[in-house]
């Protein structure tokens, strides 16, 4: 079957774009810090470079302007004259003085004198503005680098979900795994069934979301994810898949979104990994191959069999039938 449009991609990216915001787009500026963090890396680096370049050129121009208005540029080599900033002859020397002051390098060749009140005021303004810009941009870059998005890429989901019997009950199952040795603290998993439906009153609900119980009442949704686990949703009278059979699976159109959340042990930040399964990726009458084996003093996980399934006898009827 031709692959249809997904609500959530296999890599967890949501295929939703917001358009025609109108005046609401101003809310992005009211939360500028989050907007910058959400930008792609190339735009972050561009804004980082442009902000510092423009700020440096503007502040250097102000120092050059003070020297020009006081006439220091023409009398810079006069030993009897006390300039605002010593040894500032032109714009490059004013720019170097600004960089030395901003970076606290202090070569000692260029320095501000006490007979320049406007220079002292500009120096204080430069110090405050530089601290604000550094805190904002460096903080933004630090938050972006420490985001746990890359950690989510080491959380793996099986390519397909399966429907088979477990303990005499028909269940929908899929597999999750953690590729790193570091643990996910307080890992929790949730599932959403996304399917369009029409209410008895005639209202059409596109992409209606229903909860698939994966052990919320029993605590099975709280995972100890040190080895691959098979997540199980029991199909019963309370399940949205109550009427799902092997035959109806061919004509149904739905998407199961899986959300895995936890705290990264090394950083303490919350990480979220997502994936989805369409009706074409639900295999009726299959079961996952075992991936755990006992070796000499430890348990070995064979990730080459992580996505592998095999057929098992399963009734083709729905739970309702």
UniProtKB/TrEMBL annotation:
Pfam families: IRK (PF01007), IRK_C (PF17655). It is found in: Membrane. GO terms for cellular component: monoatomic ion channel complex; plasma membrane. Keywords: Ion channel, Ion transport, Membrane, Potassium, Potassium transport, Transmembrane, Transmembrane helix, Transport, Voltage-gated channel. The keyword Transmembrane helix applies. It is a multi-pass membrane protein. Its main location: membrane. InterPro entries: Ig_E-set, IRK_C, K_chnl_inward-rec_Kir, K_chnl_inward-rec_Kir3.1, K_chnl_inward-rec_Kir_cyto, Kir_TM. SUPFAM superfamilies: E set domains, Voltage-gated potassium channels. Residues 8-148 form the Potassium channel inwardly rectifying transmembrane domain. One of its GO terms (biological process) is potassium ion import across plasma membrane. The lineage of its organism: Eukaryota, Metazoa, Chordata, Craniata, Vertebrata. The gene is Kcnj3_1. The chain crosses the membrane at residues 45-66, 120-143. Belongs to the inward rectifier-type potassium channel (TC 1.A.2.1) family. KCNJ3 subfamily. Residues 155-320 form the Inward rectifier potassium channel C-terminal domain. It comes from the Eukaryota. This is G protein-activated inward rectifier potassium channel 1. The record marks 134 as: Role in the control of polyamine-mediated channel gating and in the blocking by intracellular magnesium. One of its GO terms (molecular function) is G-protein activated inward rectifier potassium channel activity. It catalyses: K(+)(in) = K(+)(out). It comes from Pampusana beccarii (Western bronze ground-dove).
């Amino acid at each position: 079957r031709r692959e249809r449009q997904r609500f959530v991609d296999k890599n967890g990216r949501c295929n939703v774009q917001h358009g025609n915001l109108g005046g609401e787009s101003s809310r992005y500026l009211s939360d500028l810090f989050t907007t910058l963090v959400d930008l792609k890396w190339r735009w972050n680096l561009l804004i980082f470079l442009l902000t510092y370049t423009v700020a440096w050129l503007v502040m250097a121009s102000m120092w050059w302007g003070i020297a020009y208005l006081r006439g220091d540029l023409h009398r810079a080599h006069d030993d009897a004259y006390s300039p605002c900033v010593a040894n500032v002859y032109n714009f490059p020397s004013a720019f170097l003085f600004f960089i030395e002051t901003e970076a606290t390098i202090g070569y000692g060749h260029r320095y501000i004198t006490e007979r320049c009140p406007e220079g002292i005021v500009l120096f204080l303004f430069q110090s405050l503005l530089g601290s604000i810009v550094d805190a904002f941009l460096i903080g933004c870059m630090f938050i972006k680098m420490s985001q746990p998005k890359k950690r989510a890429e080491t959380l793996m989901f099986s390519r397909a979900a399966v429907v088979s019997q477990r303990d005499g009950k028909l269940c929908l199952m899929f597999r999750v795994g953690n590729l790193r040795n570091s643990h996910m603290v307080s890992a929790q998993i949730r599932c959403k069934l996304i399917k369009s439906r029409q209410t008895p009153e005639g209202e059409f609900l596109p992409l209606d979301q229903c909860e698939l119980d994966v052990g919320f009442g029993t605590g099975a949704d709280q995972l100890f994810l040190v080895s691959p686990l098979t997540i199980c949703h029991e199909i019963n009278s309370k399940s949205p898949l109550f009427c799902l059979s092997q035959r109806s699976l061919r004509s149904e159109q739905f998407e199961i979104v899986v959300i895995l959340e936890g705290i990264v042990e090394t950083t303490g930040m919350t990480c979220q990994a997502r994936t989805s399964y369409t009706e074409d990726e639900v295999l009726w009458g299959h079961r996952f191959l075992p991936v755990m084996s006992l070796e000499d003093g430890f348990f070995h996980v064979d990730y080459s069999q992580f996505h592998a399934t095999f057929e098992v006898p399963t009734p083709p009827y729905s739970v309702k039938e």
